[in-house]
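Field guide to reading this record: the first block holds the primary sequence, the second block holds the structure written as discrete tokens, and the final block holds curator observations. Each block starts with its own label. This record concerns Bacterial transcriptional activator domain-containing protein, catalogued under organism Streptomyces roseochromogenus subsp. oscitans DS 12.976.

BLOCK 1 — SEQUENCE
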Amino acid sequence: MYRAAAAGVLWPDSTPCRAAANLRSALCQARRASFVPAVECIGQRLRLSEAVLVDLRAAWAAARQIISGLSELPDDFEPLIEELSRELLPGWPDEWLTTERDRWNQLRQHALESLAQQFRSAGHYLPALQTALAAIEIDPIRETGHRIVIDVHAAEGNLACAVKRYEDYRALLRRELGVAPSAQMTQLIRDLVST
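BLOCK 2 — STRUCTURE
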């Protein structure tokens, strides 16, 4: 972020000169307070120092690792699901966050779906269900998480639960968008019911 923009955001009721002076003072005090600066000044730009631990960086790395395939599934999966279920700066109205939120939502949703499929393939049904349900919470319209839930119910022998999930999803799509589930999902249910 540019220094002038940061000063304007931090001191919106001040004149540009006063805001710039406040920013210079704050940066100087921050440098004195720590051996490792939290904010680096590069010309007219400010950035967070690489030495600062940011939970989003760790979550982003975990999501990428999951998508590329885990060598070993975690026994304690709840903290991972919780980490990937967090929104990016909830409640912040800033326009610049829209694209970043979209990027994070897409990455975490793909990671949760991938993790759910990995649990499903390993026969770990409860973690698969919980992970798929976390993915559905991000975007309830997206079909992939619902398909995983249906598949897990079927793998457990819970055909009625699988059909109910399909019917609930179909009703949601009809109510919200006036469309039907994909042919792939409909065929999945047909295959389950016909067996």
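BLOCK 3 — OBSERVATIONS
The longest strand covers residues 39-42.
The CA atoms of residues 140 and 146 lie 8 Å apart.
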